[in-house]
Amino acid sequence: MDKDTGTKVFEIMEPFTLKEDLILDFQEQKKALAGQIDLIDPMANNLRKPAVRRMLDTGFLIFMEVVVWALVLCFIAFLIFMDKLYPFMYLNDLNVTAQISDGELQILKGSIKGIAVLGIIFLIIISRMLRKIRLKNNILNFTGKNLRLLSEELLKRKSAMNILMEKHAKELPADTDTVVLPPQKPHNDTLL
Fold first, then answer.
1. In the 8-state DSSP scheme, what is residue 90?
2. Closest Cα partner for 75 from 65, 89, 64, 85?
3. What's residue 153's pLDDT?
4. Which of 17, 45, 67, 151 has CA atoms 20 to 30 A from the CA of 88?
């Protein structure tokens, strides 16, 4: 620390030896690996679902999609056969019995058909949304599976690093913040 300014002064160190560089790299890899495991493992566990649950969800979404498309077909059949279906076949008779003009009758028929068309449009939108949900669930399942495999590989690497640490416990520093320098070779300088 500089006494005048109160700032830290770093001394220039000699370049590290290969062993020191490898020890530093090993420690950095260990920290990075622990961070990756902490990040990936919970995501992989949350994204994965049991096969039965995934199959039930997918089956339900497919069933709902089929039901919605069947309703679309029903609405289309309604539009085609509206004049032959029970309550709507009497619309033509309304102008005689209820004294409704032809213009008003056409507006009534048009509005009923418009409601049916809106129903078709909404059902098609719902069907597309169900399909997107099903596809996103498949992607999430695939991602969870791959994250789980990645997590397993990281855990294997961590166990290999732990084996190396146990094997070379005397040569590695006790904590990860410092590097133990090997003893220096005696020098041949006669002036010192």
1. G
2. 85
3. 87
4. 67
pTM: 0.61
The tens digit of pLDDT for each residue in 20-66 reads 778 788 888 888 888 888 888 777 777 766 766 777 888 899 999 99
Q: What was the pLDDT predicted at 132?
A: 92
Within the chain, where are the H helices?
Answer: 18-47, 51-80, 94-97, 102-167
Residue 43: partners with Cβ closer than 8 Å, 6 or more residues away: 144, 147
Q: What is the mean pLDDT of the chain?
A: 79
Q: Supply 70's token pair.
A: 């069947």
Spatial distance between the Cα atoms of 29 and 169, rounded to a whole number of angstroms: 17
Q: Going by C-beta distance under 8 Å and a sequence separation of 6 or more, which residues neighbour residue 26?
A: 161, 164, 172
Cβ neighbors of 65 (< 8 A, separation 6 or more) are 127, 130, 131, 134
The answer for residues whose C-beta is within 8 angstroms of residue 44's C-beta and 6 or more apart is 144, 147, 148, 150, 151
DSSP state of 172: S
Q: With contact defined as beta carbons under 8 Å apart, do 103 and 127 qualify?
A: no
CA atoms in the 13 A half-sphere facing the CB of 167: 6
Query: DSSP secondary-structure letter at 185?
Result: P
